[in-house]
Amino acid sequence: MNLPDYQFLSAPLWLLTTLHVLTLTLHFVAMNFLLGGVIIVLHAGVRKRWNDPTLLKFVRLFPAAMAATVTLGVAPLLFLQLVYPRQVYSAAIVSGWFWLNVITVVIIAYYALYRAALKGERTGKIGLPALVLALVGLLYVSIVYSSVFSMAEKPNLIHDLYAKDQSGRIFNPAAGDYILRWLHMVLGAVTVGGFFVGMLGRNEPSTYQTGKQYFVVGMVLASMAGMAYLLSLLPILAAFMKTPAIWALTVAILLSLGSLHFFFKKNFCASGMMLFVSMLGMVYTRHVVRVLKLAGQFEPSSLRVAPQWGPFVMFLTCFVVALGVVAYMLRLFFGASRSAT
Amino acid sequence: MNYPFWDAPIGYGVLMGAIAVLHVFVSHFAIGGGLYLVVTEHRARRRNDELTLGFLEKLSKFFVLVTLVFGALSGVGIWFIIGLLNPTATEALIHNYVWGWATEWTFFVVEITSALIYYYGWKRMTAAAHLAVGWIYFIFAWLSLVIINGIITFMLTPGTWLATGNFWDGFFNPTYWPSLVMRTGICIMLAGLYALVVAARHEADEFKARTVRDTTTWGILGLLITVGAQYWYWKAIPAAITTKAVQLMPTPIHALRYSVWLAAAIGVLLVLGRVMARRLPVAVAGLLMVFGLAWFGAFESFRESIRKPYIITGYIYGNGVEVARTDRYKKDGYLAEIVYRTGNEGADLFMHACRSCHTLDGYKPLKSAFNGTDRAFIAAIVRGTHLLKGNMPPFLGTAVEADRIAEYLYQRIDHRPLDEICRQEGLDLGKTAYDLRCGKCHVVGGYKDASKSFAGLSPDDLSGLLDNSALLGEGMPEYTGNAAERAALVAYLQTLGTQVKK
Fold it and tell me: Which of A85, A210, B271, B462 is the most exposed place for a label (fewest CB within 10 A)?
């Protein structure tokens, strides 16, 4: 029958990859603020520093950070599923219950963050149980994502696991594939969280120091986990060295160090920009690793490209308008806040 | 068949329905509620009405907690669940409509940002700035409906897209406009219903009376738009679909009837609420929410089930079988196309051909549909699914594959004779045997009713008919029941013939 074929890309691969890498980086910024922030606030609580006003400010921002994390997480997942649907859906189906429960867990974590924020506003105290609940939820989501997306890179593993059990209760048993990457990501979140604590508490020496500690220690530990993960990629390491990703990774590492330098000088704008571009480089590296791991089994470049330029222009126009409208609203909000103070 | 199959113990319809209905109930409120907030704030500010502004501030907290958390996340949940339940259709939708979804995402970004600023801005922003943010919220929330409505309606009525494959042909499909108007009406109605819950909790005074009157106006107006547009929507669905639905699909037709009754009940309660505005009990507001949710459940059930046997009309069947590959399936069979295998061919075939709609024991169970029968009967039914009541997808695999499915099911059913299983005799047993053996295609008083053909036939004639049943028409299975079942069935068929004679 002569029906339209759906197996095509509605834009050139480079464009879809760029959008994926860019939006995933934005998602990571929000997610790192949130996850790193929750870890730091809880750690500060253990060290009896609950009354720090910057920490309270942080807690009040968590619901908005969660909203940003969720919202900015939608687009990269969409672009990923457009290019790699066979891999991503197959892995998600094998871990069906874990995957679906991400939604339930995020809803619970979201309400827990609202509870902590509202309690903070009302009493000036931080709700420990709510934050612990939120942290457990966020860690659950991160480990499920890491395990499913790692499984998606191993079609043979999906075949084997599915042959054993079709109930969707399988958690990726090849932990060696993703545990270091997951650790790198969590520690990276602490690093970025430290940056935000330092930036928000820049006028409060003790808070700035706290942020600095997390920023530095987090970066050292995240680098170690990242290096260990890189070494675990031994089978594809040689191929990796021949891709532009090695340069992207080198630049990303240098920019991370640069961001530390500017953080120490309290130039948060330069530090933040470097940190963002560094994350962009790492996300691109992650993308290249996926392509290399799938090499020989799936080549995204083999997909037929049939651009839908009209709908793409609609998206681009709306994207630009949305950015403008968001900027306008933020100006209205913060302008009003400034005049109120 | 490029994907593994998620063999969840819950019926796919139940899983999908539970998430989807709750989501749409909140997401439509997220749009209508935004309009309600900003319009009511506008009026309150003009009147310098501090009481109403306080009420709206309280409502906006409830609004943010419900829509931003549950509404947004359950929307992502739909995306997760469709990828698990029908990855082929999801893949097709994403490939065709990625820019639609990406555009909706840009609106979503504005929606979330504006909702948060609106909520946090009550005490911090000027009235004009706050109202501006409120309008921005509503406009972008409604625009997200404008986009997603194109993709949802495409699934039922893809229109000329089936020939052209053009994005816009599928997007502005035959049910696009009626659905958009209807869903806008639902948004307005739900704004009224949700706001009533908050208003009903206020102490009985003039403020409560005025607020309840206002909100019931929203509810009634939204309901009228919804009901009118629902009729338009029904008329916009191609007659080939609606006629078939009326003839052989009880689920969407019952759902449609329920939605009409529920709309009437909502209307009555809204008028009642208006009459007793000052003393409106919370229970009535709560009941309205329950009816609103039930109405949406009925409508979504109608929308999902009237698409049968497709998930994307004319393009992909409900079980993920692609219409475009019909010839290939018929030639090489399903197994050649199933990428992920379990090692049990019967199980693989059963999951990919049947399991999307049927479970063994739970939702639309197949064990009870075949208990007391045999391999040959089951295989005949599998081969003739397109002839059964309920508008099922055709079985496009080979005869050997139908036998494999039959074997798989036969291993799992009760093998005792029917009279032992159901412990019946006489006409009761005959009716059970009829439902089991004949009722899958011939509904007494309904679809393909064959009662007339039994009129005037003797028990011997009827028994002869059973002997030759496989020769009576396309897809008719051979009769293989035991003597007790046969005698009871013959007696029942005779009763059917006699009733027609009268």
Answer: B271
From chain A, the residues in CB contact with B77 under 8 A are: 100, 103
Name the domain count of chain A.
1
Fold of B423-501: Cytochrome Bc1 Complex; Chain D, domain 2 (1.10.760)
What pLDDT digit, counting tens, does each position of B220-241 carry?
999 999 999 999 999 999 999 9
* Residue B501: pLDDT over 70: no
Q: Does A205 touch chain B (CB under 8 A)?
A: no
* Residue among A167, A311, A322 minimizing CB distance to B7: A167
- Whether B323-410 and B423-501 share one fold: the answer is yes
Cβ within 8 Å, pair A96-B84: yes
The token pair at A193 is 């969280």
Whether residue A239 is contained in a domain is answered as yes
**Between residues 159 and 188 of chain B, which touch chain A (CB distance below 8 Å)?**
161-162, 164-165, 167-168
Domain annotation covers residue A338: no
Residue of A nearest to B133 (CA): A329
Name the one residue in this structure whose structure tokens are 């074997």. B407
**Could you tell me the residue range of the domain that residue A201 belongs to?**
13-311
Are residues B385 and B378 in contact, defined by beta-carbon separation less than 8 angstroms? no
Which tens digits make up the pLDDT trace of B289-334? Answer: 999 999 999 999 999 999 999 999 999 999 999 999 999 999 999 9
Q: What is the pLDDT of residue A272?
A: 97
- For residue A319, is it within any domain? no
- Chain B residues with CB under 8 Å of A86 CB are 2-3, 91
Place of tokens 């090692």: B343
Q: Is residue A213 assigned to a domain?
A: yes
> Phi, psi at residue A31, to the nearest 5°?
-65, -40
Residues across chain B = 502
Q: How far is B263 from chain A (nearest CA, A)?
A: 31
User: Is B323-410 CATH 1.10.760?
Assistant: yes
Burial of A248 (0-12, 13-18, 19+ CB in 10 A): buried
According to DSSP, the residues that pair with A9 across neighbouring strands are: A305
The residue written with tokens 């011997």 in the block is B460
Domain ranges of chain B: 12-314, 323-410, 423-501
**Which residues, given as ranges, of chain A have pLDDT below 70?**
1, 48-51, 336-341
Q: Residue B250: which pLDDT band, with cuts at 50, 70 and 90?
A: confident
What local confidence, expressed as pLDDT, does residue B206 receive?
A: 92
> By percentage, how much of chain B surpasses pLDDT 90?
87
Does the beta-carbon distance from B3 to A90 stay under 8 Å? Answer: yes
Handedness of CA B80, B83, B85, B86 (dihedral sign): positive
